[in-house]
Write a structure and sequence with these properties.
Blueprint (H helix, E strand, L loop, with lengths): L1 E5 L6 E8 L2 E9 L6 E7 L5 E7 L6 H15 L3 E8 L5 H17 L3
Parallel strand pairs: 3-6
Antiparallel strand pairs: 1-2, 2-3, 4-5, 4-6
């Protein structure tokens, strides 16, 4: 298990990475309330790319972030990846959402598996 984080409260984004054999489970949370908003699964293909499937809980908008993380690591590590993402700030403004997204992407670049 490895832990990573970027930013300060309420914009802090954290990740815990679990190795499941040669595969990865990414648990990414942040904002003011950690939860499970969306789950993506991805696996590499023969074309040095990856494919993904997504499940998002009703009312949650983390689906594209979960997909982005799962695809990135499936391609880079050439393994199956499950990405679980839950990031929340009540009544977040556009500016707050942009800060969270920036920190999310910075976190993905920081993660070393």
């Amino acid at each position: 298990m490895k832990n990573f984080s970027v930013g300060e409260y309420p914009y802090k984004i954290s990740a815990t990475i679990f190795e499941q054999g040669s595969d990865l489970i990414l648990c990414i949370s942040g904002g003011t309330k950690s939860h499970i908003g969306a789950v993506a699964i991805a696996e590499p293909d023969e074309l040095n790319s990856a494919t993904a499937s997504i499940f998002s809980f009703r009312g949650h908008r983390e689906d594209l972030l979960a997909r982005e993380a799962a695809l990135k690591f499936a391609r880079e590590k050439k393994c199956r990846v499950v990405s679980i993402v839950g990031i929340h700030i009540d009544n977040a403004s556009r500016e707050q959402i942009e800060i969270l997204q920036k920190n999310f992407r910075e976190l993905l670049n920081l993660i070393e598996t």
